Amino acid sequence: MMQFSSALLEASVNEFSRLPGIGKKTALRLVLHLLKQDVGEVSQFSETIARMRREIKFCKRCANVADGDLCSICSNEFRIQKIICVVETIRDVIAIESTQQFNGTYHVLGGVISPLDGIGPDQLNLESLLHRVEKEETQELIFALNPTIQGDTTIYYIQKKLQGKDVKITTIARGIAFGGELEYADELTLGRSLQNRQPVEKYVNR
Fold first, then answer.
1. Looking at the structure, do residues 140 and 190 belong to the same domain, yes or no?
2. Are residues 86 and 157 in the same domain?
3. Is the pLDDT of residue 15 over 60?
4. What does the alpha-carbon distance between residue 47 and residue 25 come to, in Å, rounded to a whole number?
5. How far apart are CA 121 and CA 168, in angstroms?
6. Is residue 68 assigned to a domain?
7. Residue 61 forms part of a structural domain
8. CA of 31: how far to CAs of 9, 14, 192, in Å?
9. Which of 55, 92, 126, 206 has its CA 20 to 30 A from that of 163?
10. Could you tell me which residues are beta bridge partners of residue 106?
11. What is the pLDDT of residue 199?
């Protein structure tokens, strides 16, 4: 157990260690690094984080992070607005954008259907997606969900909801291993998966 000569130091370490993936030793290293910085730099750091939490918004159209009502992707007139890439989390949007292989828009579900975890369709941004497809006359819906049972269940559910709609439904090619996560896929693999997307029926059949 770590022993601290300063209650303020201990409190700071405890706060940093609450972050995911940050243990007490890493938290201590970060806090000691901040102690070496000028007070002004640390103040700017803390204010930037606090301002982010206070002012950041979620896009009313796709649920991506935004500085205004719409994110920079939805408001970009050079993006193909009638193509929607459906992802699980905001981290997946960032991962796909890093490939520079996709020029459509996104829809962040906020998770996947997982009955064992108590997550049903009502807990996800599904109704807003179905509304977008109908209202915006979407041409193609690309599923870029993690290749897991829960991901496939979610794809199947949405596909059934869209039966009879004039929209092409595809999923990214399974260049990503089943059970893997988009966040950890290398950019080349993820980019090729997007380029070589396949009809969803090829992977999700019930």
1. yes
2. yes
3. yes
4. 24
5. 22
6. no
7. no
8. 8, 10, 40
9. 92
10. 85
11. 77
Same domain, yes or no: 140 and 38 = no
Residue 4 corresponds to which tokens in the numbers above?
A: 């601290």
The string of DSSP letters for 20-79 reads: TT--HHHHHHHHHHHHHS-HHHHHHHHHHHHHHHHH-EE-TTT--EESSSS-TTTT-TTS
Residues 37 and 94 in one domain: no
Return the pLDDT at 7.
94
pTM of the predicted protein model: 0.78
114 in the same domain as 16: no
Rounded to an integer, the average pLDDT of 16-25 is 95
Going by C-beta distance under 8 Å and a sequence separation of 6 or more, which residues neighbour residue 169?
140, 141, 143, 159, 162, 199, 200
76 Cβ contact list (under 8 Å, min separation 6): none
Same domain, 102 and 149: yes
Strand order across the beta sheet in which 198-199 lies: 105-108, 83-87, 140-143, 168-171, 198-199
Domain that holds residue 96: 77-202
